[in-house]
Write a structure and sequence with these properties.
The complex is a heterodimer of chains A (about 425) and B (about 120). Chain A has about 425 residues and is mainly α. Chain A has a domain of about 110 residues. Chain A is globular. Chain B has a single domain, classed as Alpha-Beta Plaits. In chain B, the strands form 2 sheets. A 4-stranded antiparallel sheet of chain B has the order 2-5-1-6. Chain B has a two-stranded antiparallel ribbon with strand order 3-4. Classes of the chains: A mainly alpha (about 425), B alpha+beta (about 120). Chains A and B meet through α1, α2, α3 and α8 of A and α1 and β2 of B.
Chain lengths: ~425, ~120
């Protein structure tokens, strides 16, 4: 038998990493603009079909203008489906008129795709939708995430994600009766939801489910790209967008430091104090812009925390007291058990493990977090350091069982078995 | 070039449709896996083939009908042609093909008679 080399996925494909996922959002947004929000599901099917067709059609050669190729195939698929359904005369007239014109080339999409992505982002953030549904819809439609990836990131089940998607699409169909595609300016009030979606997208890249690649820098880059699009557009330019962008850049500045050579996530203590100068500089400059005005959002506080970590010359010299205070403010602005946990961690560094444990006294993880590895991991760590090995071991077991990926499990094993 | 040619027929097993389809990310990985497979066996893949659209016509002496009218689980969904010295060689190529891992996929290998070489 011949030795078969393990596939080197990204070099062999001739496509940049995440190409299909990135194209998914742009194509869906473009097509929705042409046939209306009510046809979102048909649009997603068409984009899906086009990408699937590409996986065989491109085997011998990737076309010179891959995006135009995908658009054409998705568009034709969509026209076919709409024609079969009939009764959508108005929609059909629109797409057919275009069908008769020349097949578009890449230049056709220049600029337009960015505007449409931004518009779709705002459309997904419909205030009539529960916030969870907005996130799910945006992650699915704009970012091309699979249901599995969304479920992990939002601490929920896949069945729940399906349900939220269905509800969201139904709402968009209803909304279409009022207005086809609302102008971007009229959607300005949806900014908070837009910020939340971008931040979630960033986090998906920052601590990824993908066991082979613990940190997918490209996803963080994409969130930053959307954030920049927003912050430099009249509809989004403001302190909150700036703070969010600062936060993402400051986190991204430490991305390479967070990964060891084998791709395993590094413990904070082990992280080299090596910053990406470009991200760091841009993060600091957006943070300065964000301080203009008297808005104080969770993004400001989280950017402040990220900045503390960036500025700290070493783990020991980190200003843990200041970080604990920032987390305390964060808990007041945006209550979350994750902030409670992080404050406990910072307190443990500033004042000792007993102080960290004391801050968790009486705090009960909500049902959606129960079973998630973080709560148990932190309790195990603090109990071990406080000299309660039995309790520590119990929480360690629970944390390892619930670890969502191999990379996280390895990190927990290392961290939670350290000698005092 | 090996002596014998083999036609590989892709039959669609029962596949759950709807939302369970591959994500864009998975599709890109599939594509990359195919590229690697083609690179590995490039001397033996005569025609990478194509996928067949659903539907079709069935022609007999009695006339023409809409087809194909075999059971769904036997539907041919695509084809390709590989070359090898013998069936073992052909099986080696086909088993390494990423299509084998598609849900419910059945790949059938048939040697060409070689009437037209």
């Amino acid at each position: 038998m011949k030795e078969v080399r393990p596939p080197n996925l990204h070099q062999a494909s001739g496509l940049v990493e995440h190409y299909f996922r990135h194209e998914y959002g742009g194509l869906a947004a473009l097509l929705v603009r042409r046939v209306g929000l009510g046809r979102l599901e048909a649009v997603e099917d068409a984009v899906q079909a086009a990408l699937l067709a590409a996986t065989t059609a491109w085997l011998e050669d990737v076309p010179r203008e891959p995006r135009a190729w995908l658009y054409r195939v998705a568009h034709n698929h969509l026209v076919g489906v709409l024609r079969q359904e009939g009764g959508h005369r108005r929609i059909l007239e629109g797409v057919q008129a275009e069908e008769e014109t020349q097949a578009p080339n890449e230049a056709f999409f220049e600029g337009e795709i960015e505007d449409e992505l931004l518009r779709m982002l705002f459309v997904c953030c419909d205030d009539e939708l529960p916030v969870e549904s907005r996130l799910v819809l945006a992650l699915k439609t704009l970012c091309g995430f699979s249901v599995e990836e969304i479920a992990f990131r939002l601490f929920t089940s896949e069945a729940n994600v399906y349900k939220r998607l269905a509800r969201a699409r139904e709402r968009l169909r209803e909304a279409e009766l009022d207005t086809d595609t609302p102008p971007l300016e009229s959607l300005r009030f949806r900014l908070p939801s837009v910020h939340a979606v971008i931040y979630l997208l960033f986090n998906e890249g920052y601590l990824s489910i993908d066991p082979e690649q613990a940190i997918r820098v490209e996803l963080c880059d994409e969130a930053i790209r959307l954030g920049e699009l927003l912050a430099t557009h009249p509809v989004g330019a403001g302190p909150t967008s700036f703070a969010l962008l600062a936060l993402m850049h400051l986190h991204a500045a430490r991305l390479t430091a967070r990964q060891d050579a084998a791709g395993g996530l590094l413990l904070l203590e082990e992280q080299a104090r090596r910053l990406d100068p470009d991200h760091f500089q841009r993060g600091a400059s957006w943070l300065a812009k964000a301080a203009d005005g008297d808005e104080l959002t969770r993004y400001h506080l989280e950017a402040g925390i990220a900045a503390e970590h960036c500025f700290a010359p070493s783990f020991a010299e980190t200003r843990w007291g200041a970080i604990a205070e920032l987390y305390a403010m964060l808990e007041r602005i945006a209550p979350s058990p994750l902030h409670t946990l992080n404050r406990a961690i910072a307190l443990a560094e500033a004042e000792g493990p007993v102080a960290g444990l004391a801050s968790l006294q009486g705090a009960v993880p909500p049902a959606w977090l129960e079973g998630h590895y973080l709560w148990d991991a932190v309790l195990s760590d603090l109990h071990r350091r406080a000299g309660h090995p039995e309790v520590a071991a119990q929480h360690r077991e629970a944390a390892l069982l619930a670890a969502p990926s191999q990379a996280v499990r390895r990190l927990l094993e290392r961290r939670l078995s350290q000698e005092v | 070039m090996s002596k014998h040619k083999y036609m590989v027929l892709f039959r669609n097993g029962p596949v759950s449709g709807g939302e369970g389809r591959p994500s864009p990310e998975q599709m890109q990985q599939m594509f990359a896996a195919y590229k690697t497979w083609m690179e590995t066996f490039k001397g033996q893949i005569v025609d990478v083939g194509d996928k067949l659209k659903p539907g079709g016509k069935v022609v007999t002496a009695a006339g023409v009908a809409d087809g194909p009218f075999v059971e769904v689980k036997e539907l041919i969904g695509g084809y390709m042609i590989v070359s090898a010295d013998d069936y073992d060689g052909a099986v080696e190529v086909v088993r390494a093909c990423p299509a084998v891992h598609a849900p419910g996929a059945i790949l059938e290998i048939r040697e060409l008679m070689g009437a037209k070489m």
